[in-house]
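For the sake of clarity, the format in which proteins appear in this thesis is described at this point. The record quoted next illustrates the convention:

___
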Amino acid sequence: MGPGKGKQVRRSNILVILEAVIIAYIAHIANWMVMQFANDAIAPKNDVLAINIALLVIFIQLSALSVGLYEAKLRESFRGILRRIFVSVALGYFVMELLTSTLLQNISMHTYYLPVASGLTILALAIFRYFSNKMGALGLGKNKIIVIGAGERAAIIEQRMRRDVDRLGFELFGFIPMPGDDRENGIKNETIVEVPIDEAFRDYLTEHDIEEIVIACDQRRGTLPIDILFDCRVRGIEIVDILDFMERESGQIAVNMIYPSWVIYSNGFHTHNYLRDALNYGINAFLAFFILLFTWPLMLGTIIAIWIEDGIGAPILYRQDRIGLNGSIFRIVKFRSMGTDAEKDGAKWASKNDNRTTKVGNVIRKYRIDELPQLMNVLRGEMGFIGPRPERPEFVEQLIREIPYYNQRHNVRPGLAGWAQLNYPYGASVEDSMEKLKFDLYYVKHQSLMLDLLILIRTVEVVLFGKGR
């Protein structure tokens, strides 16, 4: 783990710890207030109070995690953060109320305790987030970086990481132009540093507290001073390739900048583990069956709504060939959200506000209800809950021809939700597919149980705020 990524993780960890302390303290204050002002209040035992405080902290923070409040690069206004705080506390309140009124009645508190604790927690977290964001209190000393190169490859930082929220993990000192850089398509508005990379370069870096060098020159052969960079690395200055830097800071792989040797020497895109595959299927099948038990009334309601709009007997399900693991073809099953003649002229990209979508289709697509029948694909082992979204064969043939490394996304089983959907939620063209592939390849390269868990709980945010297609 590089220093930039490490500081992002430490920032998130400190945020979790500080907010846990705040919630616990507020819960204690809420109990004191209820004891003081409620006439019928009876002081709870210390162990009962401690259990209530601990559960409240756990449920609120799990809810906060699910709505993205601990995401290192949360792209949201303060109003949006307030909304997420409100939702996370409300979810925590709901779970606590449900537990203490049913399964854990022996630890129930005064009627006013949870409302008071929840209201004060929303206020306290809002104030804390406002000042921590405004003052940059949790920046933890951003990595100070300098970029070698000012051409087309270096310009991806300027183009993709313009906002402050994109640069939470680093402070950009400037760009050093190199021979062979495409300056016409290179850096336009960032600081250009005219400094020779010679024996005095290391002293220059020390003088300006540079901790990391990003290699982003357009022409490497014969232009990079390897001896100088080796000396810098030996003396503790990190050296990182632009591809690895973008992967670390943005959670995507810059497909248009990949060169074969990077693929060869990176940690790979194909990790076949039969034990993990079997375990994944077991977990996915169990979750699919469990969700079906609870969502069948919603699915029945969807069927009725489609028939009301299109007439009894109208097609309910939509079946379509998709490309799955290792390029195999399977039939995906969804609730029909478009008219029955939506593809009378052949396969077309779906688009935002597509006029082929029915009224019921607009609602079920927004909240992902149309994808519930895909639980059957999960039970059959054709899909998992987490993975790149499967694409149609007609489009895959085109995308493989036009986008380098596109076929690598088929090294893992497709899923109902994915890293690309969280970071780039809509795709209706080859250009959009290129952008989504950057996130898909990041997932293929870094797939793990923890990343799957993160994607799963972050998908809750998509459903809660209606951000689905």
Summary: The beta strands are 143-148, 170-176, 212-215, 238-241, 317-323, 329-335, 384-386, 415-417. The first helix runs from residue 3 to 37.
